[in-house]
Design brief:
Blueprint (H helix, E strand, L loop, with lengths): L2 H4 L17 H5 L21 H19 L4 H5 L1 H7 L3 E3 L5 H6 L9 H10 L6 E6 L4 H21 L8 E4 L5 H9 L3 E7 L10 E7 L10 E7 L6 H18 L30
Parallel strand pairs: 1-3, 2-3, 2-4
Antiparallel strand pairs: 4-5, 5-6
Helix pairs in contact: 8-10
């Protein structure tokens, strides 16, 4: 790949862009303002510069910390949010963090005791059931859910939907949706779960949505809105997109491959213009 693709325009002064590099776009656009990816950061020989390398190591350490952090209901969501929504915690069949990481299938089913607890604690057959799962990044749950959850509950209530009792799942995988569906029979379940952290952020949240999930359902029966974080999909937009997707599912009585989220086309990049996030269509 040519140097004018790998290097940033500011590198011209340091001799890192080949003389006569032909693309004016490369020389006039600060691409690093448009993406957290490590593009055009320059190099020393065949290696990253020291600041880039150290930042990479720090981000890798943050990702590891996120994966191994234990979920703390009040600590990560805040006592006020826990009290407002009456949140409580259940656990998958994984017995520890190590068990959860080594045996993903255990994170897809709730323990027998907690299935019984859901039946006695949560009202059955709501229009919308919200679930919070720690997933592979409890830090993402801590960063996004205290603001996102109230927006979802308030938005659903304003639409006249019956919202179930929200709860959190420790050692949670996406497949837990099926147990929730079979136990509480909600029309739609939305699982807010910490994504596997990468080297751009450890605070990215996903929202998995499913219409009447059942034990034999797979990813083909689910829809996903991912990259909910400060440099991805902002919380106000994420809330509107999730609620709009739930409305589509309820209207069509299905989810997964049969449902396509409708979004406006992003703006094209122009002189000094950022594409910005995708916006829901009117």
């Amino acid at each position: 790949m040519s140097g004018d693709v790998l290097s940033h325009p500011a590198d011209d002064r340091q001799g890192l862009v080949p003389a006569g590099a032909s693309s004016p776009l490369v020389r006039s656009t600060d691409w690093r303002a448009l993406t957290p990816a490590r593009l055009m950061v320059g190099r020393v020989g065949g290696s990253y510069r020291t600041p880039t390398y150290l930042a990479l190591k720090a981000d890798h350490s943050a990702a590891l910390d996120a994966v191994h952090t234990e979920f703390d209901l009040a600590g990560h969501l805040g006592a006020d949010v826990v009290a407002r929504f009456g949140l409580f915690e259940v656990q998958s069949q994984a017995e520890s963090k190590a068990d959860y990481l080594l045996h993903p299938e255990k994170g897809r089913q709730l323990s027998a005791d907690d299935l019984a607890r859901l039946r006695t604690t949560c009202p059955a057959r709501p229009d919308l059931q919200l679930v919070i799962g720690d997933g592979l990044s409890p830090l993402a749950v801590a960063a996004q859910c205290p603001v996102l959850l109230p927006r979802l509950v308030d938005g659903a209530t304003a639409r006249g939907w019956k919202v179930g009792q929200t709860f959190a799942v420790r050692y949670c995988r996406v497949g837990i949706l099926n147990d929730v569906g079979a136990t509480l029979d909600p029309e739609v379940v939305v699982l807010l779960i910490g994504e596997r952290p990468g080297l751009a952020t450890a605070e990215s949240l996903s929202a998995y949505c499913a219409y009447r999930p059942r034990p034999d359902h797979t990813d083909a029966n689910r829809n996903l809105i991912s990259n909910i974080h400060a440099r991805g999909i902002p919380i106000p937009e994420a809330a509107e997109r999730i609620l709009a997707l739930v409305a589509q599912m309820r209207a069509a009585a299905t989810s997964g491959v049969a449902i396509k989220e409708t979004l406006a086309m992003p703006r094209r990049l122009g002189d000094g213009e950022s594409a910005g996030p995708l916006q829901p269509a009117d």
